[in-house]
Write a structure and sequence with these properties.
By secondary structure, the protein is α/β, with parallel strands linked by helices. It is built from 15 helices and 14 strands. The strands form four sheets. Strands 1-2-3-4-9-10-11-14 form an eight-stranded parallel beta barrel, surrounded by five helices. A two-stranded antiparallel ribbon has the order 5-6. Strand 10, helix 7 and strand 11 form a beta-alpha-beta unit. The structure holds flavin mononucleotide (FMN). The site of flavin mononucleotide (FMN) has 19 residues, from helix 6.
Amino acid sequence: MSRPQHFGWFLARGFGPHGWGSPSLDWGYRWTEPRLYQESARLLEQAGFDLLIIEDAPSLGSAETIDLRVRHAFGGPKHDPLLLAPYLFAATERLGVVPTVNPAAVLPYTAARQFASLQHLSGHRLGLNVVTDTGSARHFGTAPALGHDAAYDRAEEWLAGVRALWRSWDEGALVEDRSDDRYADGSRMRPVAHRGEYFSFDGPLNALPFTDGEPVIVSPGGSGRGLGFAGANSDVQLALAPLDEASIRAYRGRIHDAAVAAGRRPSDITILFAIQPVLVGSAEEADRLVARSLDPDDETIRTIARRQSSDLETDLTALDPDAPLDPAIFADHVSHGSIRRLVGDHDIATTPLRTLLAAHARLGRLSDGSGFVGTAAELADRIEELGTWGNDGVLLWGDLHPVSVHRTLDELVPILRRRGILRDELVPGGLGANLRAF
Ligand SMILES: Cc1cc2nc3c(=O)[nH]c(=O)nc-3n(C[C@H](O)[C@H](O)[C@H](O)COP(=O)(O)O)c2cc1C
């Protein structure tokens, strides 16, 4: 038997019309209503997944480029995943649900109280994907947009404040003694007078302490600062890295070093590597799909250009595809990481835009580690191999529609179970208990 691993599902386009352009929409589900997500969440729970993470970005971006973001629903609209979470908890019993939150958008006291309420309501199954998007600050009436590292500083102060509030009821503060007619002991509550660089607030928190642990903290940042944040603060890190042994071990090593530097144990953090699988019925079909992707047709190139235009808030569809890209077209606020991802290893000065876009159409095979196209058995082989390198688990990446969940899991789950990689069922006690079960 292989070593068991943890499994997460990442709703990568957030709580929005993420199926736009997909035939699955014709199944008649409305993205604004909970049924679509509830049914999918039940399938994930049945499969033995630890958690479902819901991407979010609170902003539609800059006023001049909103149409690029909404025209094909790549960048919005998005509803607040925190408010979807209770519906998913109500539809399941053991699955962890992890909405994305941005410390720029919710004050620590409000955040601590809302998350505490949900942690109790859900039977301790809440997680929070803490992100540091800086562009949306202008919507919240707080400080002007921060730089990359300062946004992490603010996130650390925010999280420390939230946790201090959660811990503001000392042991014994909750009495619940009917014979003495005493519910709680106010002398055992800490005032928590926080005066920091970004936030000032007082406690204690007007919510009960937890019996089965605090909400699980998840983080996705991959920069040095992001890995440091994870090492010091996170229970789960979402990792984007090539899935070869050297990259996996190097990434895990950096998180573990950061954990030790912060006085924690490497085993305190579950690292989930992202996989965006394209599962097909046979190896031959997978080979055909990959071969076809090397020479994408015009419609595919157009779709990639639209998606990149949304991410980059820059209209690439209006440019000559056979000319190189002029870097001056990108406004100052456009993410440098996104521009780097578009350009890849090419020379931006000489490479035609069409070549840059075509590179994003290119698929690879699961069987040789060059990509994510393959059969369920090939995906299971890949996940099993990750386990031999000490991997904790994987994050399957896609939309959240019962059709997609079935398509990905129907064949895969029995194979993983037979090999002992996927647990038979989740344990009671909440998300933390499941993450610590092995
Ligand atoms: C798996 C994964 C999930 C992410 N989810 C979100 C998200 O929901 N919202 C968001 O604003 N950023 C998200 N990000 C981006 C990161 O939070 C972060 O902004 C980005 O990685 C830049 O930070 P870094 O420079 O530390 O990598 C995600 C990244 C990854 C790899």
